[in-house]
Amino acid sequence: MAPKKGKLTLKEFSETLGLSKSTVSRALGGYSDVSPKTRAKIEAAAQDLGYVPDPLARGLKRGRVESVGIVIVRGTPALYDPFLSEFLDGVSRSLNARGRDLLVSTAGSTQEAVEVYRRLIEARKVDGFILSRTETHDPRIKFLRSAAVPFVSHGRSDSADDYAWFDIDNEAAFVEAVSLAAQQGHRNIAHIAAPPHMNFARLRLKGFLRGIAASGIASKDAPVHTAPNLDIESGEEIARRLLLLPDPPTAIVCAVDLLAIGAYTAVKSLGLTVGRDVSIFGYDGLPFGAYLEPQLTTFDQSGGDHGAQVADMLLDVIEGKDPATLQVIRQAKLLKRASDGPPAQSTEELARKIACGDAA
Amino acid sequence: MAPKKGKLTLKEFSETLGLSKSTVSRALGGYSDVSPKTRAKIEAAAQDLGYVPDPLARGLKRGRVESVGIVIVRGTPALYDPFLSEFLDGVSRSLNARGRDLLVSTAGSTQEAVEVYRRLIEARKVDGFILSRTETHDPRIKFLRSAAVPFVSHGRSDSADDYAWFDIDNEAAFVEAVSLAAQQGHRNIAHIAAPPHMNFARLRLKGFLRGIAASGIASKDAPVHTAPNLDIESGEEIARRLLLLPDPPTAIVCAVDLLAIGAYTAVKSLGLTVGRDVSIFGYDGLPFGAYLEPQLTTFDQSGGDHGAQVADMLLDVIEGKDPATLQVIRQAKLLKRASDGPPAQSTEELARKIACGDAA
DNA sequence: AAAAAAAACAAAACCGGTTTTGTAAACGAC
DNA sequence: GTCGTTTACAAAACCGGTTTTGTTTTTTTT
């Protein structure tokens, strides 16, 4: 257990074995021109004396550093994003299992993120990148593709299909939410959308509209308002605006949980009951949703799994697999809780109730 | 802008300048034996041609890699900790400003974290570590100290004072919370404590007790219950238990915001009003607290600043500064909101109210 | 049994820098 | 004007590995 001081070097190690550096290196590297007997001896000794090649020296020659990077863009849904923590945990686990590490940096915008990429590539600190929260037109993807640096993105951008990505079927999830609401009897269903430069926002809106069409609801009964920011305040503000429409929606499908939480506040402040007067659907599966009153119906993201899978994909790309063959889409899982249900009354009645309550 | 293919190497670079590798290297390194004229020329050319030394090669010779590591321990207050995100952001900013990067890994326990440290040190992937969420007896600190690896911890452990740390004055914060409550007229003040193996928990409890003593409250009127986990459920369960005591507290001081959020639920489920019947104090400054009804009174942590400062301290240690001289303590800032106030009634009256309401 | 081929290991070059040591020219002192 | 210092740069060693090329020795082929 005595941790060697200044580390055991290949030269020393091979000398104690009475062999040359090259033979030892090749033996450990699994090359063919080493006799089985010698190889066994070397491996045993390495184990024994705790010889581990210095990754710096190895990286210098090999051109790899066994680390991957992720640059987190501040703002938008904020760093304050539980999903992100879980995601990072998944990434880290997966990387560690394969002897790699994760380098994390932050940036104020995707543009700034590109600068960080540039620096990290130049400095040879990573072998590839993981992208998250992709935007519709994402400069990061453009850059990394042109720089020919391995990467995998969590979420697609518009520029389709010759890179590796992992994505949730956002569209299908929102079709599902709308269909469920329609089935429960809602005829006026609103959507609080996320800013459309986020790619997931576009897809969720698309799903919402498809769901509306499939349910035979007129588009005038399916108002879409876009939240300026993905935070609770915005959710409250927009939800309030929706409920004060002449034909208020009896169900509100929110692009993300934070908006849904804001919507709760709006509904309650109008003297209404979430889940009866107004149904609310979220998306993200924030743990917090289970503590709302009533518990929020939402979609689970299980960030850990996503992170692990994305990391695995990236390692494959780094090892030479064709990125275009690595495209995975997964279905979101509805977390049915208590914020949805058949509407207690029609839109007209709801409008009247709001008018009275609000005046009161 | 043409990004050089296979990177510009020192050899190539010095050849185009008609100088030797060594001279160029020494010029850029700021050594003395280069004429000012030559140095200027070299620096201009480096800027121009975009020459950046390969950190791998440099690290190999210098023994430094210009990265620091942080190993996040899952569980306990969970990865789902907004403070952590901000903290990481601060660390990253500070490091990037000084040309360093952050390597992030996760572990299931502090013991496991030590294994990760060992691996990262062996693999020479980092020059030092940042620790967070220190425990009272922290094996990580013991290990890093014995391994003589630079580190700075965010939060102290019991083993006092020959390493670098940055900490909040937890004790003072809780004295303040209790004093405020006492001043508002509370004579029965409870504490929901965090598990005592977390060092901050110990200090907060200590502060609570000191505040109680200073306010002349009998210890029998200051019950302390320890939450098994730092989550919302635990908070609810313990708060409920406290409120069903014969002499229920009119104020509950919680070790962390998550517990306070749980306490809200307990108070409300007993038909009581937070801030009137029962005052609640949190600690953490979770953004979410501002959306509770009523808004949670808590202490601000501003994780970003902490992270930045800790990172700066670590770089100082790595550069040879004596860790024992780097010990910073900062005062927490009370975020006075609406969950506290003078008690609406005495303990006895509250007990009666609870008994009735609960029966009803 | 001689020539060709394969096996097993060693020597040397290389990755891209930094640092130590060397050396020619310019400078200063006596 | 000779000798000792500086000054300014170059050559070479080194960091700790990997990989290419070389060299024996053994085995196979004919």
Radius of gyration of chain A: 27 Å
Task: Count the E strands of chain A.
Answer: 12
CATH H level, superfamily name of the largest domain in chain A: Response regulator
User: Can you identify the CATH class of the largest domain in chain A?
Assistant: Alpha Beta
Could you tell me the mean pLDDT of chain A? Answer: 90
Which pair has the most extensive contact?
A-B, 44 and 44 residues
How would you describe this protein?
2 copies of one chain form a homodimer. In chain A, strand 1, helix 5 and strand 2 form a beta-alpha-beta unit. In chain A, the strands form 3 sheets. Chain A has a 6-stranded parallel sheet with strand order 2-1-3-4-5-11, sandwiched between helices. The first copy, chain A, has a 4-stranded parallel sheet with strand order 7-6-8-9, with helices on both faces. Chain A has helices at 10-17, 21-29, 36-49, 55-62, 82-97, 110-122, 139-146, 170-183, 199-214, 232-243, 257-269, 303-318, 347-359, and strands at 67-73, 101-107, 129-132, 151-154, 164-168, 189-193, 224-226, 251-254, 279-281, 298-300, 327-330, 333-335. Chain A folds into 2 domains: 67-169 and 303-331, Response regulator (Rossmann fold), CATH 3.40.50; 170-301 and 336-359, Rossmann fold. The longest helix of chain A is centred in the N-terminal third of the chain and has 16 residues, at 82-97. Chain A is α/β, with parallel strands linked by helices and 360 residues long. Chain A is elongated. Residues 1-5 of chain A have low confidence and may be disordered. Strand 2 (101-107) of chain A pairs antiparallel with strand 2 (101-107) of chain B.
